[in-house]
Structure formats: structure tokens, C-alpha cells
Amino acid sequence: MFKHDKNLLEMVRVERPNPQYATMLQEQLGGPNGELKAALQYFSQSFRIKDPEIKDLFQDIASEELSHMEMVATAVNMLNGHDIDVTGTQPAGNIEANVLTGLAPYLTNGSGVPFTATYVNVTGDLPADILSNIAAEQRAKVVYEYLHRQINDKHVRQMIDFLLNREEAHNTLFRQAFQKIQANGSDRDWGVDEDARLYFDLSTPGVNHFNLNNPQAPSFQNPNLTQ
Amino acid sequence: MFKHDKNLLEMVRVERPNPQYATMLQEQLGGPNGELKAALQYFSQSFRIKDPEIKDLFQDIASEELSHMEMVATAVNMLNGHDIDVTGTQPAGNIEANVLTGLAPYLTNGSGVPFTATYVNVTGDLPADILSNIAAEQRAKVVYEYLHRQINDKHVRQMIDFLLNREEAHNTLFRQAFQKIQANGSDRDWGVDEDARLYFDLSTPGVNHFNLNNPQAPSFQNPNLTQ
Amino acid sequence: MFKHDKNLLEMVRVERPNPQYATMLQEQLGGPNGELKAALQYFSQSFRIKDPEIKDLFQDIASEELSHMEMVATAVNMLNGHDIDVTGTQPAGNIEANVLTGLAPYLTNGSGVPFTATYVNVTGDLPADILSNIAAEQRAKVVYEYLHRQINDKHVRQMIDFLLNREEAHNTLFRQAFQKIQANGSDRDWGVDEDARLYFDLSTPGVNHFNLNNPQAPSFQNPNLTQ
Amino acid sequence: MFKHDKNLLEMVRVERPNPQYATMLQEQLGGPNGELKAALQYFSQSFRIKDPEIKDLFQDIASEELSHMEMVATAVNMLNGHDIDVTGTQPAGNIEANVLTGLAPYLTNGSGVPFTATYVNVTGDLPADILSNIAAEQRAKVVYEYLHRQINDKHVRQMIDFLLNREEAHNTLFRQAFQKIQANGSDRDWGVDEDARLYFDLSTPGVNHFNLNNPQAPSFQNPNLTQ
Amino acid sequence: MFKHDKNLLEMVRVERPNPQYATMLQEQLGGPNGELKAALQYFSQSFRIKDPEIKDLFQDIASEELSHMEMVATAVNMLNGHDIDVTGTQPAGNIEANVLTGLAPYLTNGSGVPFTATYVNVTGDLPADILSNIAAEQRAKVVYEYLHRQINDKHVRQMIDFLLNREEAHNTLFRQAFQKIQANGSDRDWGVDEDARLYFDLSTPGVNHFNLNNPQAPSFQNPNLTQ
Amino acid sequence: MFKHDKNLLEMVRVERPNPQYATMLQEQLGGPNGELKAALQYFSQSFRIKDPEIKDLFQDIASEELSHMEMVATAVNMLNGHDIDVTGTQPAGNIEANVLTGLAPYLTNGSGVPFTATYVNVTGDLPADILSNIAAEQRAKVVYEYLHRQINDKHVRQMIDFLLNREEAHNTLFRQAFQKIQANGSDRDWGVDEDARLYFDLSTPGVNHFNLNNPQAPSFQNPNLTQ
Asked: Mean pLDDT, to the nearest integer, of B27-43?
């Protein structure tokens, strides 16, 4: 069951409306590495998880991502300002807010592409799902880094900073979970078959020095974390 | 902020696995009238609502729809059963569970079309948003009626019954909200312009007896509710 | 059978080309509340309608929406002007007209998202279909209100005025149809089940005063219309 | 302006309901080579055409394709039968009719993928648009050939026969139009540049005997048609 | 098997970064008439072709289109420049490069709509497939003509010139292939049925002078090519 | 530049046609974890990579994934058999092959959803891109495991075995690459900020034992690989 608390996870403010930035920030509302995608991915994956600790971890983070989505939507809403722009000259990507949603936040990426569940990765295999999540968190962090550079509003920067660091925390947690379950599921018997140890040099001229002589399912080792 | 309670809003059970029905039920997970769509629609609309009572109503129902989504996903997960079908002869619509998600619930409609935010209607105009919600709840109820007829599993029927009645409750609440705000926003000055009172008879031969002599913004009158 | 008359339903003119506004207006050509969506929705719904008067109504309005689509497309075409902009600096949303369609109108929303039938709601249940149409017409009116504010071209304003009022007329007609068929289909036995009369207060702190003690299927009562 | 005549372009009957075939036939309702796509393509292209004869041709055929769409939808509706299947074991592809549309025709392809305007090709260049239409008509004919083979219902076969031959007629007309306008627009100065006369043999071993020594914009020559 | 050569098919340079033009050029990377679409269409079609010469032709051109895709992506990458724009005021369509891809080329059209396989036409019928390809090449040429007019960068113009002429060469080759196979598959028995020789005048008033008295499957006759 | 060799990377055979399995296998042709997605992802990412060794690795693997796509398409084509099924009773998911593509392979997932570039993850940040690829390879392996279980055809099993092991090899290589570049880009300064070391316990009751006291950017350590 989901319950809503009218307090945001972390307070959201903006210095002033900034409709074009609102659009860019929408990338994290309804885009491929956005908060909705993250919430739905971890939520969907959680159903087939047997380990109660990991299942709880997925549900904790899914709930937090929903709460992040609410923060981002709140910021988009504030940045959109109070009134439809009557000049008829919208900045890039900000059209729908003026012709469709009445300045309400919209579940699209920064270019207006509607959110789609094709962004959500679920396999029912725990190693694959955790690796999908580590990658998703890393991409989310990168998008927040890009967004951070393009805004001077100190309140918005503060919110992005918070969210960026939270994605990093989730990432660390998923990496810990990966260590815990390693050599399970699709990570079993890694590199046993000969075909798994070949290198095909198909782009010429090639400079590759990687070798595959002794491959095994590697893990996320983190000295600091595993002490 | 969203918080998750590991207890479902209402207990979900199934008599036995039924993979094909799982697929059909998925219509209410990731389909156009499903629970995710409802939750995201009311959530997105709530940002521009000023009336605190109506804003609270939208947030209450959005949270409940998220909780419904969890119930439906739980049922789909149970109906999918324990093991990938090894016969290679999947019933209609049940392919992704066997080749992609490892039997985990998937955010698609009953035919495998991924959820898309194009299902979500937000206008920032309160009458339009409430009418969108009344229509959405009515359609959701109809889909549950169709789903109810096609399953004998008494536990699944019970869950559908519960969800169907909850959509009806939401519908009544949205109709009450519509009465409260009527003649606001896009419902103002209804039928004032002459063009709003014309009938174009473009499909021939026509039998239409509707007339538009005295149109005004109508409301949802419910004698029992308004006493 | 559909027949085409080279005369538009209402004459369309523009004061001068305005490529960016053309893009914004495209929202009503291929967007979620646009004319194509409306035409296809009523057309698709009409097949399962038994009441000849209501069936005729749906077909009349579907045909008119096709004619509206032609008017909007004509305006977009005129607003796009005569020549590809050679500056390589397109205003927001106007890229496809310059790189793809050679300034012809394109079936997308204002941001370039291609029309999709996911916008079209059909259930085969008459109350649900009519409510979907009432909501669709209300949203279409709101979009025209937003578009009206963002253009000074008096001819374009006149066209939008006409279309806006026509959506209002359709809305009134669908509300009349809803009254005619009420307590049928999915509106039967409203509020009979106890679960349909509960309120779940899931967003805290809540201020909701809505009550569900005596719910029944409400109708659109319009004193002026029902005399 | 579009007007609707309640008579179909050609009468549609079915020997008996056949829900799975209904689904397959839906390919021509909302699929990539279906009637809706054709109608919208020719309609959209017509706005930039200056030659009145060719513009009229495009509008004539667009209107006929809308009328075909109505015929196909009527057949799908009849083939879907009278009642929701209560067995919960839908044949491939027939799920949405039972859980969503209440057996009404739905604007998808045969697999349930919703119609999208990405199927529609518009360039504003007459040679390119006509060639797009010739190709579209040829593909539509092929789909009808496939559909014809997979049904024994004599009435459905008769309808498919009619539609297949109409696509052939449209195809011939578009080829005539191509002859009329040839060496215009994108067909001008064909093969003038040296790069337009090279052959890159990139798939080895190759057996290609095509040569590009003297390329010019070719036309559709039809001795019988040009006499 | 596909092999990659680190040399481009033709060298790509740009005079200077031009992020907005990068976006417009992306139309030919991931748009409906772009290089990826062309490559995948000819590749997919090639599997059912029996004539070894034509099969080889399709595979040669598919490989070349992949190599074109690489050239276009290289140009987009260079035009995007070296650094994320920190002004937060992206020109139309250039948002994703700044918030998502870190300036890497992205598989969308010029408006940010992700590439979709709905652009790809495959029928398994050789005349239909070849006509689809002729039309696709003609549209690709038109898009390059539009793109050519909107850029002054001489290196980019040179690349577009090359690609435009190559599409023309492919077009000529597909037209030659069409001549070779004519009156096969869906081109057999053209115009035999009476319904294939009727003209429905559905757009009034009409001026059409096309006639269908003696239709037969026409071919691409090119005097210069067939000598 | 891409060149095509008519020899497959590895020979493909099937014991007998199996149209339904063809459909399921299509998941790896045009699905979210399929070969086309992998090829396009690594290809797109390669443009912003500066390290020549890693750039070469990405291009080698992208080329191999294209060659895998060709193998999968070849198998789908063989499994589809020689003739359209005339019974009009297609097994789940196999409709398009019979009504649209004439049994040619089609770029969709197992349920007929067309390939979309929304599957492709590109960020321009090397750690994020490599982690995306590790996750993608892991998911691809899982899908092949599922597919392997559902077919008895020994030749198809052999092909799947080969492809599964190749994905494992790519995975190992990407993990090696991740080790090589670690603490770069988005992996710098990991866990420095306090917000990156908090755990929000939002799903109750919770059992989580994960701690975040000393988080640092972890790496893939593989004792066997790093000796």
C-alpha cells in the first residue's frame, strides 16, 4: 500500500520562474533516466525477489523515487510560473505547457516525448535486475550533473544536488546488493564455455588489448564497503 | 512524499495460476484505463489545484490507485505461476512473461503494448480535469466488468469486485467535486456564442432529435447526493 | 461512406505567415485533444451503438470533427508560409515542417510527437463512451482557449473562436445524450456495494469533506435543457 | 468539408462471427498499410499540391480510403460477434476486443499496436509523395492478398476482393499522375552528379550486374495507358 | 556478417560547431527517411529474396546505408561541439544533447522523436518491397535537399551533396531492379478485375481527367538505362 | 564504414519450421534486450569515447551485435517456414508474419511491439555507458536462457548457446573496461556528500541491513581477470 504525506521528502523552492529550464528538468520527470522510470523499475522487479532484505531495499528505493518524482514535478510546476505566455514564441521544448497542460508538469522527457514503459527493465533474474539498477542510477546521476551546470537558480541547484547524491546512495546500495547475491542466477558458471572466451576483432584496424583468457563472473569489490 | 506499507490495501489471493488470464489482467496494470494511468493522471493534475479540499481528494485517490496498481501486479504475479512454460506454445499475449520478465508483472496492456503517458490527461483547467477523471473511472469500471466475466477464480473475482467498486466510489467523488466547482474555468459562459448552439447534420440520412436552443453548462445533479 | 466537399465547413484565412504558431496550432491537428482524435473516437464508438438517434449524433459529430481537422490543417498550412526557412534556426517545434514535410501540415502535437491511437477511447459501453466524449470536448475547448490567448492574428482568432464554440456545442449534445441513456450499462446499480461507499484517506494531513453515504449514479442535470 | 452517408461504399456482410480473423483484419484498419494511414497520407499531402487535377485526385482517393476504413471497421465489428468470450482463452491478438473495446473495432494493427502517424509519409515534393503513394497502395494490395488466403467466409472474401482491386485502381492512377509530373521536383537533373552514378560493392562476394552508366530519372511507362 | 572499417565511406568535416543544425541533421540519423531506416528496411527485406542478383543489390545498399548512418552521426557529433551549453537556453530541438546524451548523436528525428521500426516497410513481395525502396530513396533525397538549403558550412554541404547523390544512385538501381522483376508477385494480372478500373469521384466539385479504361501493371521505363 | 560478408558469423540451421517459436525468438531481433538495440547502443556511445582501446572495443562489439542480429533474423526466417498459414488461426504473436511481412523477419519484440530507440542508452559519460552495457549484456543473456528452455530444436539451441556465451564474453570485456576507467567521469568523488550516505527507510516494516557509512565508487574486481 502507498500512502502520501503532503510534506515533500525535501523542501523545494525556486528563485524565479524559468519556463525553459522547467522543460529541461522535465527530463527527470518523464525521461528514460527519470524518477518515474526508476520507481516503476524497482517496484516491478520487487515482485519476484525472494531475499527479504533485498526485496525491502528495492521497495525502499522505489518509494523514495516516487518521492523524488514529486519533488521534480513540484520544481517544474514552480519554474513554469503563473501564466501562460501570450507571446506565442515558446522557447524550445516548452510548447506543451502552454498549449496543453496549463503549466502543470507533464510526464515527458525534455523534448516532449511522453514517458513510456519501454524505459523499464525487468527480467526476474536478480543479478540482471541489480545491474540494470546500478546502470540506471549512474545514468540518472549523469543527467543531474548536466542539469546542474545549466541553471544558476541556487534553490534549484540545491534540489538537484540532493537528488544527485541520493542516486549515488542508491547506486552504492545496489552495488552492495550485487555483492551479496553474486554468482547467483545469470552470474553462475561464468566463462565456462569456450565461446565466452573469444574475442572477435571486427572493427579494423583494431588496437584492443583486452584479453579473455580467464573470465569469471566479476563482482563489485569495494574495499571500503566490505571491511 | 510517498511511503510504502508492505500490507496490501486489500489482501490478494488466487485459486491457481492462470497465465493467460494474467495477461488479460495486465490491461489494468499498464493499459489505457489501468491503475498506473489513473494514479499518474490525478497526481499530475493536483499540482495546479488551488482548492485544498479538491487537491486533497486528488491526492487521496492518486495514492489509492498506486495501491490498486500494487494489488493488480500482485495478482498478475501469482497468476503467472512459478515456472517458465517450457512448451514454447504461449497463449495469446503471454509471451513477454516467458521470454522477458521471468514471470514478473509487466507494465503493458493485455496485448503487450507498453504503458505510455499519452494515456494521461492533464489540462490545468479544473472542470476539464475532473471530467477527464469521471470518464477515466467509468472506463476503468467497464474494463473490470469485462475482466470479471472471463474468470472463474473466486479470489480473483473478489479482488476485481473490490477494485470495480472502488472506481465507482472515486467516480462519485469526482462527480461531487464537479458539482462543487461548476461554472468555473472552461465551464463559464456556456452556450453564450451562437456557434455553440448550432447543429450540423453531416451524416445522412439523419434521425437526430437533439436540440441546442438553450444550452448552458450542465452539472452532475444527484438528488441523493445533494440533499 | 465519406464524401468530401472542397468548400471548408467555415472559411479559413490568416493575416500573415507565422511558422511558430503553426506548430502550436498543430496540437489540435495531431495532439491528444485534437480534431483527428475526436473524429476517430466518435467514429469507432458508433459501431456498437444501438439507439439510432445517438448513433446518428456520434456520426454527425465525427464528420464535423473531420471537417474541423481540415480547417486546422488549412490554417497550419497557411501559417507555415511559402518557403523553407533557410536560416537553419527554426523556432521551437517547427523543425519537421522545414526538414521533412516541406511546410505541409503534419499529424503531430505541438512538440512533434506523432498522432497515436492511444489517444482514442472506446469501451463499447455507452455511458463510459459518452463521458469520454464529454471530457474530450471539454479538454479540446481548453486547448483552444490556450491557443486563442497566444495569437493576435484576427483571422486565426476567428477560426479558433468558431472551433471552440463548436466543441462546446458537441459537449452540450453529449451531455444531453448522457441524460437520455442514464442508469444504463456501467451506470446501473450505482453505489449498491459497500466498497463503493468508502473513503480512503491516504494523503495526510487531509482536509477532505466529501462524503459517500448515499451514492447513486448521478446525471448531467441541466435545468435549461430539460424543461 | 467531409460528409457522411450512412450507406457504405459497398455492402459488407459476414457469413458468421470469427473473432480471430477480426483481429487479423484489423491490420487494415489501424496497421502500417491500412485504410486510415492511406486516407491521412493523401489528405495531408494534398495541401501543398498546386496542380488542380492532381489535388482533386488525392482528395478523391483520400475520401475513398476513409470509406474503405468504414467498410473494414464494419466487417471487424461483425466478425467480433455479439458477446464477450467468457472462457478467458482469447485467440492470438483478440484480447483488447474482450477486455477493452467491448468488441468494437479498434485502431490497431493485427497484433494490437495502436495506429501511429509515423506510418504517414508527407514531403511536400510531388514526385516523392506520389511514389510514396504508389508504394503504399502496392503494400496494401499485398496485405489484402495475404488476408484473402486465410479466410473462407465468402462475404469477407468478396469485400477483400473489392478493396484489393480498388487499391490497384488507386495505384494505376498514382502511376498516371507520376507520368504527368515527371522530371519535376526531386526528379529533376537526375543522375547529373558523378556520385549518382557509382556502385559500391559492400556485400561480398557480390554477383551484381546492375550498372549505373547512364542514369536518368525513369518514369512509369505503360504502353496501354499512354496510348 | 558485418565488419567495420574505421575509415568512413567518405571523409566528414565541419567548418564549426552548430548545435541547432546538428539537431536538424539528426532527422537523417533516426527519422522516418533516415539512414538507419533505409539500412534496416533493405536488410529485413533481403531475407525472402530468391533472385541472387537482387538479393546482393539489397545487401550492398543496406551496408552502404549503415555507412551513411555513420557519416551522419559523425557530422552530428562534430556539430554538437565540445561542451554542454551552460546557458540553459537550448535552441529548438537541441535539448536531449544537453541533458541526456552528453552531445553524443542520438537516434531521433529532428524533433527528438526516437527512431521506431514502424518506419520500416517489409512485405515479402518483391514488387511492393522495391516500390517501397524507390519511394524511401526519393523521400531521403528530398530531406537532404531541405537540409542542404539551411546550412552554409561548406563541409557539411559537401557531405549532404554526396549522400543526396548516393540516394539518387540507389533509387536508379531499385528502378532497374523493378524493371527486371516486373509483372511478378503483386504486379501480376494488373487491372483484370472490373473494380480495378473504376473511378470514384468523392471530392466535389472535381476536375479529374484521369481515366482507368485500360490499366496494366506499369513499369519504370528508362530509355537511357534500357538501351 | 560497414562491410557485409555473405557468410554468417556462425552457421544457422533449424530442424524444422516452428512459427510460434519464430515469434518468441523475434524478442532478440527487435526487443529491448535484442541484438539491434545492443549494436546501436555501443555504436552511438562510441562517438564520444577518447580512449582508443575502449573505442575500438565498443566498435568491435557493435559490429558483432549486428552480425548476431543477422543470425537471429536468419533463424526467424527459417522458423517461419515456407508458406503463409491459411488456417486463419495464428498462434500467439505470429500474426504480423502472416498478414504483413510475408514471413520475413520483423523488427519487433515477441509480442509485435516495433523496435524503438527508447531502448538505447547513451550518456556521453564513460562509466555510465559501460555500466549500461554490462546491464544490457546481462539482460540479453537472461533472455537467451529463457528462450533456450522453450525449444527442443537442437540447431536452434546451438545457436542460442553460441549467442548466450558471446553476450557473456562481451559482458566480461565491458567489466574489464570498467575497471580500466574507474574513478573517472560520474564515478569521481563517490560518496563525498552527506546525502550520498543516508538510508531512507520508506517501506515498512523494513528489514534492511545495508549500511552506507563508508561509500566509495566500487569497481568490478575480478581476481582471475586482474592477476
From this structure: 98
- Whether residue E51 is contained in a domain is answered as yes
| Residue A213 forms part of a structural domain | no
Range of the structural domain that residue A142 is part of: 19-184
pLDDT tens, residue by residue, D48-69: 999 999 999 999 999 999 999 9
pLDDT at D89 over 80: no
pLDDT of residue E214: 65
Q: B44 vs A5: CB contact, 8 Å cut-off?
A: no
List, as ranges, residues 19-78 from F with C-beta within 8 Å of E. 30, 36, 40, 43-45, 47-48, 59-60, 62-63, 66-67, 70, 73-74, 77
What number of C-beta contacts closer than 8 Å exist between C and E? 80
Q: Return the pLDDT at A82.
A: 86
Contacts of E126 (CB under 8 A, 6+ apart): E49, E51, E54, E181, E184, E185
Distance in angstroms (rounded) separating the CA atoms of residues A10 and A14:
13
Burial E5-32 (b: 16+ CB within 10 A, else e): beeebeebebeeebbbbbbbbbbbbbbb
* C4 annotated to bind ligand: no
Q: What is the pLDDT of residues C76-89, one digit of tens each?
A: 999 999 888 777 77
Q: Do D47 and C116 touch (CB under 8 A)?
A: no
Tens digit of each residue's pLDDT (9 = 90 or more) over D18-29: 998 999 999 999
- Range with the lowest mean pLDDT among C2-6, E24-28, F211-215? F211-215
Q: Which residue shows C-alpha cell 517501397?
A: E132
Instruction: Give the count of domains, chain E.
Output: 1
Residue D8 domain flag: no
Long-range contacts of F66-69 (CB under 8 A, 24+ apart): F66/E2, F66/E66, F66/F2, F66/F35, F66/F39, F67/A202, F67/E1, F67/E2, F67/F8, F67/F9, F68/F9, F68/F35, F68/F38, F68/F39, F68/F163, F68/F166, F69/F29, F69/F34, F69/F35, F69/F36, F69/F39
Q: What is the tens place of the pLDDT at every residue in A103-119?
A: 999 999 999 999 999 99
CA C63 to chain centre: 13
All three cell numbers of C148, joined, read: 486563442
Flag if B142 and C125 touch (Cβ within 8 Å). yes
Q: Which of E31, E111, E203 sits opposite C111 (nearest CB)?
A: E111
Q: Of the candidates E4, E102, E118, which has its C-beta nearest F48's C-beta?
A: E102
Please name the residue that has the C-alpha cell 526538414: C99
Q: CA of D142: which chain F residue's CA is closest?
A: F100
CA distance A140 to A168: 9
Residue whose C-alpha cell is 497484433? D111
Nearest CA to D174 out of C77, E134, C67 is that of E134
Q: Secondary structure of chain D: what % helix, strand, coil (to 5)? A: 55, 5, 40
pLDDT for C14 beyond 80: yes
Among E64, E3, E71, E6, which Cα is nearest to E38's? E64
Which set of grid coordinates corresponds to residue B146? 469485462
Report whether B92 contacts B34 (CB < 8 A): no
The answer to whether the CB atoms of C4 and E202 lie below 8 A apart is yes
Reported in sequence order, the residue ranges of chain D that DSSP labels E, i.e. its strands, are: 2-5, 203-204, 219-221
**Which of E101, E118, E126 has the highest number of chain F CBs within 10 A, making it the mutation to test binding with F?**
E101
Residues with Cβ within 8 Å of residue F148, at least 6 apart in sequence: F157, F160, F161, F164
Q: How far is F75 from chain D (nearest CA, A)?
A: 20
> Is pLDDT above 80 for B89?
no
ipTM (interface pTM): 0.94
- Which residues of chain C make contact with E147, given a CB cutoff of 8 A? 99
Touching check for A118 and chain C: CB below 8 Å?
no
Q: Minimal Cα distance from D224: which residue of E?
A: E214
User: Which of these, E97, E101, E78, E96, lies nearest to E8 by C-alpha position?
Assistant: E78
Q: Which three cell numbers stand for residue E81?
A: 561541439
Is residue B180 domain-resident? yes
Q: What CATH number does the domain containing B117 carry?
A: 1.20.1260.10
